[in-house]
């Protein structure tokens, strides 16, 4: 990896973990493109582009434009995701398939396109944002857990395919993080859940971003196919 500013793409960059990752890379001087279906949080150094990762043609054309403008894709943080929580016996086919399509299939689509460039340039870093829910099986999240567990298997398969090209693919598994996605649970439920975390608190998006910075750094050049839980010990031993 060069010491010069890298071209960093972050999906789901409009808020929460994605916004924090985009800001962290921008703050260290990288060229950062935040990709999301809505406008992102303003941050100096982050260029936001609208992208529907569910649309294969939109993904192809957006990546073509980025490559044309910047010449390379050095880091991808694959963060875009949704929840549609419901008890399994009440979960509709649509609620299940919508989460799988967004969290897993669309992430594959974006990773595949980024890898085409990285393989040609024989370098690159991909950081996939999964979840501790992939291991813990939280009630009401059969669809979400399936999608996040799928990301881990997919990332490891792809990591083996491209390791010889100086490309690393690693997974971050966040625990209970203070974002808009978790805020819908309400303060009382979040406080109760926090008591189950050995660290005794919710994590912050910036703590996930810090791990992403490490995995994209020269210090992590010999790490690939790894899963790093950033969860305050919630999934300890899993």
From TrEMBL:
Q: Where is the Ketoreductase domain?
A: 6-175
Q: Which Gene3D superfamilies match?
A: NAD(P)-binding Rossmann-like Domain (3.40.50.720)
GO terms assigned for molecular function: oxidoreductase activity, acting on the CH-OH group of donors, NAD or NADP as acceptor
Matching SUPFAM superfamilies, A to Z?
Answer: NAD(P)-binding Rossmann-fold domains (SSF51735)
Q: Does the keyword Oxidoreductase apply?
A: yes
- Record bears the keyword Oxidoreductase: yes
Q: Which keywords accompany this UniProt record?
A: Oxidoreductase
**InterPro entries linked to this entry:** KR_dom, NAD(P)-bd_dom_sf, Sc_DH/Rdtase_CS, SDR_fam
Q: Family assignment? A: Belongs to the short-chain dehydrogenases/reductases (SDR) family.
Q: What is this protein called?
A: Unannotated protein
């Amino acid at each position: 990896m060069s010491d010069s500013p890298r071209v960093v793409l972050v999906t789901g960059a409009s808020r929460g973990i994605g916004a924090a990752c985009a800001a962290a890379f921008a703050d260290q001087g990288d060229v950062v493109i935040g990709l999301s279906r809505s406008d992102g949080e303003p941050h100096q150094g982050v260029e936001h582009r609208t992208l529907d990762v569910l649309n294969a043609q939109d993904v192809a054309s957006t990546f073509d434009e980025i490559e044309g403008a910047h010449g390379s894709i050095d880091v991808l943080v694959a963060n875009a995701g949704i929840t549609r929580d419901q008890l399994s016996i009440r979960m509709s086919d649509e609620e299940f398939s919508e989460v799988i399509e967004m969290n897993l299939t669309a992430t594959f689509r974006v990773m595949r396109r980024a890898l085409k460039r990285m393989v040609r340039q024989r370098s690159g870093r991909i950081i996939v944002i999964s979840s501790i829910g992939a291991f813990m099986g939280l009630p009401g999240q059969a669809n979400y857990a399936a999608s996040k567990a799928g990301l881990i298997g997919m990332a490891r398969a792809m990591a083996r395919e491209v390791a010889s090209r100086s490309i690393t693919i690693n997974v971050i598994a966040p625990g209970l993080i203070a974002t808009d996605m978790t805020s819908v649970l309400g303060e009382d439920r979040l406080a109760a859940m926090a008591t189950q975390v050995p660290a005794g608190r919710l994590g912050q998006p910036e703590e996930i971003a810090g791990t992403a910075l490490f995995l994209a750094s020269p210090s992590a050049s010999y790490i690939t196919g790894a899963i790093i839980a950033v969860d305050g010990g919630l999934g300890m031993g899993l």
